[in-house]
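lol ok so funny story. i was supposed to be doing the assay writeup but got distracted and ended up predicting the structure for this chain instead. priorities right. anyway since i did it might as well share w the group, maybe its usefull for someone
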Amino acid sequence: MSKTIVIALGGNALLDPKTNGSVAEQIRIIERSCEKIAQIIARGYRIVITHGNGPQVGNLLIQQEEAKELVPPLPLDVCGAMTQGQLGYLLQQELDEALQALGVRLPVATVITRVAVDSQDPAFRRPTKPIGPFYSERERPALEQKGYILEKVGKGARPWRRVVASPDPKEIIELGAIRALLETGAVVIACGGGGVPVVCEDGNWRGVEAVIDKDLASALLAKELRAEMLLLLTDVERVALHFGSPQEVFLDRLSVSEARGYLLEGHFPPGSMGPKVEAAIRFIESGGECAYITSLEKAVEALEGRAGTEISAIHLGQRIKR
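and the output, tada:
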């Protein structure tokens, strides 16, 4: 049987923050992402695609707030479900075309996915997940008056971004449906934006105001599907120590113990590379063969061992590139 790969698309694979975020711009970027994914599918792998939704759900919340005098605003969990449908649709469209261009005919399906979280998770008291656009220092006071919680997550003239709670994913509610589709040969898009966070109350699932980290949800999904590989796509080719400094060192291969050590030393910030390294560690510790962290452009090469950072259970002899 073909190996299964869970591919986690980072925000840059769906939306360029330098553009106006229009549907036309999103389609242009998603088209490029789907061309790469189609090349992987054409090599015979079974694929499940996950994706982030930070920019999209943040923009959708702004629309809710600005139009609240005209129509009732929607809560964050519903906005998360809406962006799953929005981005799933765009990915389905572009991936179908990319596969046809390669002579591959496979169904592509999106599953609006709920993910269970713990209602007592401390993340609800300490929001950390960036969503929506970046803001300047001048815009900050007015936004905080509106109730935004802002954190400085970038550099330059617009370093501030809204943050919301990001509880740890515990269970993929639609796992059975995802598995059934995968076994029919379909390419499945699931856990969009980390999935809609839900908690159990009186035996029923209830949505909560949060955004789950899509990399951690992807690791959980890959574990439950017993996937062999987890491919985490971001905007850099390799994981680095001392990123952005004169001492920057890029890493080709890491064992789980090495990755955990560097994570504890603070080399991978919680708002960027940290969740990806943590997701890779969780996946390998749950029995996965290997995890790769790389850029969209190098996704195919990473699976062939020619790019990216590979994280596995066994120390493979770390190669360092400066």
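The two ends are 39 Å apart (CA to CA). The CA atoms of residues 39 and 300 lie 7 Å apart.
back to the writeup now i swear
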